[in-house]
Structures are given as structure tokens and as C-alpha cells.
Amino acid sequence: MIAIIDYDAGNLKSVEKALLYLGQDVLVTRDREKLLSADKVILPGVGNFGDAMEKLKGYGLVDVIREAAGQGKPFLGICLGLQLLFEKSEEAPGVEGLGILEGEILRIPDDRGLKVPHIGWNSLELQNGGRLFAGLEAEPYVYFVHSYYLKAADPQIVKAVTEYGVRIDASVEQGNVFACQFHPEKSSRTGLAILKNFAELEG
């Protein structure tokens, strides 16, 4: 069972639909016991960092997420879900993130002649043997929608990067915790292959 955390995050249905297409058993829930008993957990999300943390607190999900990630089961953050796993974001000064991973979320600079938010397809440069990318081509194309990007504290956890005016840490992996800034559920066959790799991870 793969549990998708429901906190009014916006892209829950598209993630659920992609996993169902792959033949996975999926549950969208904010119930503590169901999240903790699931084989794998996904934290999706689009929107504002500060608003999202408020919703997670309001639904009593902050400690549940930390506990689920601490159980050793595969845990995946997608887009805003990646950003929330880190300590802080320039989007919401003074708001603490989940702090499960170390790093900061920065705004994509407006001064590089590129449109912000960054919307569209970019190729990834894979590195450090990421398990989500097993069997994929060397520079897979994936779909992004974001105005803020990750700068991870430890470069060894970074499994994919992309360029959009700045070097963006596009995917990370630390132990059982995985995260993608891009949207695998909107990234066609490549994205489905990434979600399939996650679904097949051993807990």
C-alpha cells in the first residue's frame, strides 16, 4: 500500500492516477495510523511553503510525517513536498520546514532573462547512483513547475541536477527518503518509470 498524504496540496489526484495506472494499491489519507501502517508514503504538493506548513500543522501531520520517515519505509516528496522536507525557504522567512533533510530553498533569480516560475521540460543530469533513476537514459526529460529551488547541504544526497539560470538540485535521496523537485506524475513515460522504481523499492 502506498499512502499519499492529504493536506489539500493540489496535485494529489494526478499522483494517485499515475500510481493506479502502474497497478499500485493507493490510499489518499491524513489518518495517522493508516500513514504509519502503509508500506510507502508520498508527500506531494504545489503552492506556498508557509501555507503548506500551516496546513500540515493544522491537520496534525508534522510529527506523523517525521515518524513515517523515521520508520525506514520509502518516503517520497514531490515538488513542494521536496521543499517541505528541508529546514527553511526564502518563500516563507521565519517558517520552519520539516527539517528531515538539510538544505535551504532559494528563489530562482529573476535577472537571468528566464521566466519565473520555471514551467516546462528540462533534462536532468544524473549523479551519485540514484535508485529512482535505475534503468533510465542518461539525460531524461522531466516536467517542472516552480519558483523556488533546492540547494542541499550535502552534495552526496543529490541524485539529479538541472540548469535554469542556476544549478538546481532536482532530486535527492538519503536513506529511505527520496524527493523530486519536478513532477514525475506529469513527466510522461519517464515519470512513470521513476514512480515505478519508487513503488518497487524494498522497505
Question: TL;DR of this structure?
Answer:
The protein has one domain: 3-Layer(aba) Sandwich (Rossmann fold). It is 26% helix and 30% strand.
Folded structure, characterized:
- The structure is a single chain.
- The protein is 26% helix and 30% strand.
- With 203 residues, the protein is α/β, with parallel strands linked by helices.
- The chain has a single domain, classed as Class I glutamine amidotransferase (GATase) domain (Rossmann fold).
- The longest helix is centred in the C-terminal third of the chain and has 12 residues, at 188-199.
- The model has no long low-confidence stretch (mean pLDDT 96).
Summarize the helices and strands and which ones pair or pack:
Blueprint: E1 2-5, H1 12-21, E2 26-29, H2 32-37, E3 40-43, H3 49-58, H4 62-70, E4 75-78, H5 80-84, E5 88-89, E6 103-107, E7 118-123, E8 125-126, E9 141-146, E10 148-152, E11 158-163, E12 167-174, E13 177-180, H6 188-199
Parallel strand pairs: 1-2, 1-3, 3-4, 4-13, 5-6
Antiparallel strand pairs: 6-10, 7-9, 8-11, 11-12, 12-13
Structural descriptors:
203 residues; three-stranded mixed β-sheet; 26% helix; 13 strands; alpha/beta; 6 helices; globular; Rossmann fold; eight-stranded mixed β-sheet; 30% strand
Radius of gyration computed on alpha carbons:
15 Å
pLDDT below 50 for ≥5 consecutive residues: which ranges?
none
| Domain module tally | 1
**Terminal residue distance:** 12 Å
CATH architecture call: 3-Layer(aba) Sandwich
Side-by-side strand order of the widest sheet: 2-1-3-4-13-12-11-8
What is the overall silhouette? globular
Mean pLDDT: 96
Instruction: Determine the oligomeric state from the structure.
Output: single chain
Q: What percentage of the residues does DSSP assign to strands (E)?
A: 25-35%
Structural class: alpha/beta
